[in-house]
Amino acid sequence: MAHGPGVALTIREKRFAGLPVPLLADLSFEVEPGTVVALVGPSGVGKSTLLRMLAGIDRAFDGVITIGGVPAYEAPPSGLVFQDSRLLPWLSAAGNIMAVRAETTLEDARRWLGRVGLAGYEDALPDQLSGGMQRRVALARALSVNSALLLLDEPFVSLDRVLVTEMQELFAGLITAEGATALLVTHLAEDAVSLADRALILDGRPARIAADIPLTTPRNKRDAGDITRLSALLTAKLSEPAQ
Q1: Residue 211 φ then ψ, to 5°
Q2: What are phi and psi of 163, to 5 degrees?
Q3: Residue 48: CB partners within 8 Å, gap ≥ 6?
Q4: In the β-sheet with 7-14, what is the strand arrangement from edge to edge?
Q5: Nearest CA-CA partner of 194 in 170, 222, 232
Q6: Same structural domain for residues 72 and 158?
Q7: Fewest CB atoms within 10 A around its CB: which of 40, 167, 201, 243?
Q8: What is the pLDDT along the chain (243 residues), one digit of tens a residue?
Q9: Nearest Cα to 78, choosing from 105, 51, 118?
Q10: 67 phi and psi, to 5 degrees?
């Protein structure tokens, strides 16, 4: 059963000083509780900026974002997973998890590490872990902060595709088990269709929603054929010129 919050976003304009046009304009969407939405588009279109706005970190925009009915900056912190693991090298795996939330105990950290397949690695330093294991610690850290709302910024970038498949299965299983609401930023159609219930394609400058595509086959029932078909659909949409 879903316990993740609903998300609603209306951005009239987001601009950076010195740029001739806004980065985002006239952009609006909602995310149903317990669903996964992929934000898909080319580099520089504003996907990561949108995540920072959703996290309540970036408040310099004209518009409204609510998480569970309250302004994003007043909502409980989201579980953030970045493009790299961003682990503190002098802290153990458990220490990295405990460092981001004062209420997290060692027992909590051990439990979350076990959930991502790293039981027994609580005392390992980041440089003693492989890249994939570091990403698992980063996911455990995000879940420890907020397992109900996850914001994922290109979480599989720089990983080989075999490891990507392994990590996708881990993410999908945990998101389903937690009933989490999640927003996934990616530029790859395959990542979107492997994890999401719906894909929003962003394009143009200022960026707008070029396509809103429901991925109708339930994500836990998609086979290789579904992944190939849906990836082709998204890829075709991504290649269409911005209107």
Answers
A1: -160, 145
A2: -70, -35
A3: 153, 154, 185
A4: 24-31, 7-14, 62-67, 70-71
A5: 222
A6: yes
A7: 243
A8: 458 999 999 999 999 988 889 999 999 999 999 999 999 988 889 999 999 999 999 999 999 999 999 999 999 999 999 888 899 999 999 999 999 998 999 999 999 999 999 999 999 999 999 988 999 999 999 999 999 999 999 988 877 878 888 888 899 899 999 999 999 999 888 888 889 999 999 998 999 998 899 987 888 788 888 888 888 877 887 777 655
A9: 51
A10: -120, 115
Is residue 191 classed as helix, strand or coil in its secondary structure? helix
SS3 call for 223: coil
Q: What region, left, alpha or beta, does residue 183 occupy, with left being phi > 0 and alpha being psi -120 to 50 degrees?
A: beta
- In this prediction, residue 142 carries a pLDDT of 95
Residues in the chain: 243
pLDDT for position 242: 58
Domain of residue 5, residue span: 1-78+148-243
Question: How many whole angstroms separate alpha carbon 204 and alpha carbon 212?
Answer: 15
On whether the CB atoms of residues 156 and 164 are closer than 8 A, the answer is yes
**Within the chain, what is the greatest distance between any pair of CA atoms?**
53
CATH of the domain at 58: 3.40.50.300
Q: How far apart are CA 132 and CA 214, in angstroms?
A: 30
Cis peptide, bond prior to residue 206, ω within 30 of zero: yes
Do 140 and 152 belong together in one domain?
Answer: no
Please enumerate in sequence order all residues whose Cβ is within 8 A of that of 160, keeping only pairs 6 or more positions apart, or say none. Answer: none
Question: Are 112 and 182 in the same domain?
Answer: no
- Cβ–Cβ < 8 Å for 35, 181: yes
